[in-house]
Amino acid sequence: MTIRQLSDTVINQIAAGEVIERPASVVKELVENALDAGASRIEVATAGGGLSLIRIIDNGSGITPDELPLAVSRHCTSKLSEDIHDIRSLGFRGEALPSIGSVARLSMRSRTQGADSAAEIGVEGGRVSSVRPVAANPGTTVEVRDLFFATPARLKFMKTERAETAAITEVVKRMALAFPEVRFSLSGTDRNSLELPSVSADGDGLLRRIAQVMGKEFSENALAIEAEREGVALSGYASIPSFTRGNAMQQYFYVNGRPVRDKQLAGAIRGAYMDVLPRDRHAVVALFLSLDPALVDVNVHPAKADVRFRDPGLVRGLIVGAIRHALETSGMRASTSGAE
Ligand code: ADP
Ligand code: MG
Q: Protein transport: is it a keyword of this entry (predicted)?
């Protein structure tokens, strides 16, 4: 038996197996990077359900030419935090770009704000090209072509182009809800176009972004939710009982601006609407929790959106209480003892 160290490419491909499940995961990672770079405009274009092409253009901070090789290297991040329990950016693992580069053809061109030149780097199936000067606007453009060409086994797991396109649209919508002041667009040959002009970052803006993303009808049938307890703040909108869906797909949750999917949060919504909705109907919500990052663990898994709260009971109680209160004050729910 011989024990050997795996090559960087293989290590990155293994990581990609976790982080990059499908085209929508690439879009999620790249949009997060653009947001972390402070972009106010993010343009996403896709072709072939994102398998042929994903292109993301942002007007964020950009990357200097000498840092481009670092950006595509494993465990290299500018969001460095020696304390992984105090994460304020969306990314922090320094894994996405090298992972994507190990399974696809990635090119990244960037110009920092104020610089008068731009540069580009490429990674194809793990092979990194040298940095070359190019012409570009300030900001960053990332192009990912032929996703999974280097890992054909993964390609076999892809659903139809339509399904992959739908998943991409969902990712963009989910991120867009959390960043109303950022203008998002989605275009390309996948016929998934979306234009979300920037709105203000306040409650009014949020409601307008909700109308853009979740439909005007929801925004007109939603109650404002606002509550705070022991340093945990909750805000957002929740549907009135007559506005429901057959599944819980339209329940959006955010923790410190990061989209999450979480059984406990979904459970809290069921609890809140328990006696006003039949079992097979689901409320529509967009809820934002903000709390001290030390009180929540978002590191559970790179691709999964679950979270762990230090005090899950507090969070549940806050959500259930706030929604019931909103239903009661709007006359949508008879006032009861309030006991859950
Ligand atoms: P992470 O986001 O966890 O740091 P990534 O692999 O996604 O890891 O990105 C690595 C680094 O590349 C980031 O920390 C950032 O410095 C830089 N970077 C990536 N995308 C962008 C972008 N769109 N604009 C500016 N910098 C970027
Ligand atoms: Mg990232």
A: no
The three-state secondary structure class of 184 is: strand
pLDDT (0 to 100) of residue 189: 87
CATH of the domain at 86: 3.30.565.10
What's the pTM value of the predicted model, to 2 decimals?
0.92
Ligand 1 neighbour 97 (Cβ under 6 A): yes
Top mutation candidate among 12, 18, 28, 33 for ligand 1, by most atoms within 8 Å of CB: 33
Decide whether any atom of ligand 1 lies within 6 Å of the 39 Cβ.
no
Distance CA 103, CA 66 (A): 24
Among 42, 78, 112, 143, which residue has the most ligand 1 atoms within 8 Å of its CB, making it the best to mutate?
78
Report how far residue 196's alpha carbon sits from residue 37's, in angstroms, rounded to the nearest whole number.
19
Partners of 119 in the beta sheet?
110, 133
The number of domains in the chain is: 2
How much is the ipTM here?
Answer: 0.99
Q: Are residues 80 and 176 in the same domain?
A: yes
Non-local CB neighbours of 170 within 8 Å, separated by 6+ positions: 24
Q: Which atom of ligand 1 is nearest to 34's Cα?
A: 23
